[in-house]
Amino acid sequence: MTSPRADPWAWGTAAMAASLALGLSWCILQSPLTLYDGLGPILDARRSPSATSTFYGALYSNGYWRPLRLTQIKAVVDASGDDPIRAFKAIHVGLVVATFLLFAAWMRPRSMAEFTAAAIALMIPAGHHAFFVLFSEAYPINHFLEIVALTLVVAVLARGTRRWWKDLAVPVVVAIGALTIESGLLIGVAACACWLVGWRGISWRGVAMVVLVLAAYFWIRFFVLEIPSPSLDERATGWWLQRLEPDEIVRRFAANPLPFYGYNVFAGFAGALLAEPRSGMFAFVARLLNDDVPLWMVIQIGASVLVTGAMLTALGPALTRWRRGTLDDRSRFVLLGLGMPAANAALAFGYVKDEVLSVGVAFYAAGAFAVLAGLGERVANRAAGAAVLLVCASVLWTARAADTFFSLQRSAYNVANDWAVYSLAKELPRDWEYEPTRRLFLDLQRRNVSRAVPHPAVTKQRYVDEFLEVD
Amino acid sequence: MSSSKSTSLGLRLAAAPPLALAAFGLLLGLNVPPVPQWFWPTPTTNIAEAAALGDAARVRALAAAGAPLDAALPVSPDIRTSGEPPLMTPLEAALRRGHDELVQLLRELGAKPHEDAAIAAAP
Lengths: 471, 123
Hints:
The complex is a heterodimer of chains A (about 475) and B (about 120). In chain A, about 70% of the residues lie in helices and about 0% in strands. Chain A is mostly helical and about 475 residues long. Chain A has one domain (about 10-465). The radius of gyration of chain A is 22 Å and the shape is globular. With about 120 residues, chain B is mainly alpha-helical. Chain B has two domains: about 1-40, no CATH class; about 45-120, Alpha Horseshoe (Serine Threonine Protein Phosphatase 5, Tetratricopeptide repeat), CATH 1.25.40.20.
């Protein structure tokens, strides 16, 4: 990026991204640390003698291969001294700020129409349900957010000028991501996809190395260490209008899991693009059948349908340009905006969870930027319909993003109460009996409940309940 | 000229909602009064009020700070429901609202039942 004077729209977008990230970060800093999924790894890290032993201990686990996940947590716990909350919060805020700034840098708008589109597109990561858990929870590092940020690093590098060091750096980033959580494989997919649509910031050599890293991952995981994918009874998930518990999933699909996996891919893709289903369940349809559709649900689906419809309209021309070798950046964004959610959904075939789709949604937001910029230019040609669509997309997506702020407040209250009533003696007796982990827990509990989190009855939430999905 | 103005107006209208939210985020993030106080009010409830609301975190935090567990404290009319007395102990408030986890928490913290158990048992 050049100077603000030479590139005002890009800098304006970056300022907007930073403002949004600051606001979200403020909410994160006021909130307690996630208890469920977050406390266990911190206590494990305190028990572990060293980061190396954590790494080797995490090399073999049933259904997952994530040795860097616990190693990162161990390193932070060791480095943070008596106050790991501050360190984990700093990491969370850093990742939020990095994600928004990278997204703004990737879009790089060049005109008023593109700036308007970028402003609306920024509302998508801020307001999409796949991103909410990335802001509200830390386990105690939100690795999904980490992967989104790393994927955006690769996307920014791919769209930029070719440099030799990028060919070396990107495979390393892919390896780090893949060894952290499975979604990290999408960093490699993104590098390849960016190359396929014609961005050459990473050369074919870099992409070839990425493919080698991915191949090595699969070979080591499945053939050397023999760590399979998670089994069917791993967790409950949505199935059309209902939620299936693990034993029910096994009963129905143990003989032939393909329909289940196929549904998960479809549900993940549709959820990313249409805000329905959520975690695999068609909640909107279920509530429609009961004549009980809340306004916030209409807002969420309306926002997604509007933008996805515009992207699907742009898909045909983009594919034609791709075949002819005349792709421009907007068409590239559209292809990636639909292709990456599909790849993300395919990788998440085992179970549907909203946050697993977050990488795909980041690319979807970039696709939205491209089609909304096109609409913005039609507004310039006095197309009233385009203006109406653009304003509607803006209002609906901003409502979803505003929802995130209120939902973070509510989530903070819920988590503070989780901490207040949690019994380590009952839940993790081994850690209660071990003096260092008991002391750490009591300190964490004291610090987390003493945060000034307001009860929902005294916040502004009561005025917006009908419009926003706060709870 | 008028075409350019209407163009600009359409784009500005579309950009306004995200810009307004970003401005809110900036003011919140920079702690500029009164935005944080408006959006995230500091709790002012006493321990009996917190118990009535089911706010376990505040109950635990206030108890740790030395709040009396067995004293009857004033409960704001905004928080009281009809039939509730203006003065309640935390345990009584939690019992009346049926916050079972909070009742257990208060007892773990050292609150004594007194006549609260009788109140809860009453129809």
